[in-house]
Amino acid sequence: MRADTHIISEIMRRLGSVQQKIPCVFMTEVREEPSSKRRFQHFQVVASEELSPRALESRLESAVATEKLDGTCCYVSVFKGKPYLWARLDRKPNKQADKRFKKFQLSQKSLSEFAWNVEEDFRSVPDSWIPAHGVQHQNRQPVPDENGHILGWVPVENNNKQYCWHASAVNYEAGTALVLKPHADNRELLEISAVPLVELLEQTLELIGTNISGNPYGLGSKKSPIHLLVPHGSVPVRNTPSVNYEQLKKWFQESEEGKVEGIIWHCINGTLLKLHRHHLGLKWPDGDTFLSRRPVAVSFDWTVYDFEVQPNDLFAAFSKLAGQRFEHIQDIQMET
């Protein structure tokens, strides 16, 4: 038992940092058929019943399984001398370079033989853009991944309309973020609170809400949108079967706890592995999601901060709900 506790503690220490694309726990193949995940994509990636080599060497029996949330990935790091929220912004090739890359892919040659010119082949990004941790560099230039993308981040500034929903979940004057995570004293209960950004430094989080990814969790409304940050690895999934194709597919289809977009396994060797419902040919979302049906408490008071807030500020709106508990997170209604 002591060894198991040590393993879990080691894994938990590393939760909350997702900088790179996470591979599937099973071997995958590409099928030439319309994607059930992305509109206008004429192929889809599906899982086989065979575990990937990485999964076989990663001690999955000791891994911590957490919910894969359907939102957009964010990162907290220092900008302008203080903790800031950063949005995912991947550098992608321009049309001409992308056409050349796809033609090379069809040739079935090794992708390592493809020559990129990062300065000329890629679309421009803001000067504040930084590559994600783990991006390889060559001659001081970031190297694109196997998909021809350079993963990275851009700081969320209040005057950037492109990231207005990101900005609604942070307040830089108070140095806080609007966070959803399991309650510290009751893991069955979710909690919405204002968390100091400094406590989230170098973590990644998922932004979910009204205007993100089609809002599968039923948060807020068009008139009163709600957007929340969820630390990666903070929401465990329960009653998952062993990592077996048929058992997992049945769990997604029949279990109440299986009404999630997917699973992320956090392994003791640092490997992250995932399984998405679409890997199994399953619809998402399919009715109410498990997260949307969970109870939630609002447990912070925005009035303790000594400055004037705007009438439409999301923090102020939640402050009015301080101390309240809702049977389901999708039941939260803001005062209008």
Topology of this protein?
Blueprint: H1 2-14, E1 26-31, E2 44-51, H2 53-56, E3 64-68, E4 72-79, E5 82-88, H3 95-106, H4 118-121, E6 130-131, E7 137-138, E8 141-142, E9 152-155, H5 164-167, E10 170-171, E11 176-182, E12 190-196, E13 204-209, E14 227-231, H6 245-254, E15 262-266, E16 272-276, E17 296-298, H7 314-319, E18 325-326
Parallel strand pairs: 12-17
Antiparallel strand pairs: 1-2, 3-15, 4-5, 4-13, 5-9, 6-9, 7-8, 10-11, 11-12, 13-14, 15-16, 17-18
Structural class: alpha+beta
Provide the helix percentage.
10-25%
SS element count, helices: 7
Strand content is 25-35%
Cα gyration radius (Å): 21 Å
The number of distinct structural domains comes to 3
| Biggest beta sheet summary | 6 strands, antiparallel
Low-confidence stretches: none
H/E element order: HEEHEEEHHEEEEHEEEEEHEEEHE
Largest sheet, order of strands side by side? 6-9-5-4-13-14
Shape: globular
Mean pLDDT: 87
Alpha carbon gap, first and last residue:
52 Å
The number of strands is 18
List keywords for this structure.
single chain, 7 helices, RNA ligase (ATP) activity, RNA ligase 1, globular, 336 residues, 18 strands, 5-stranded mixed β-sheet, 6-stranded antiparallel β-sheet, alpha+beta
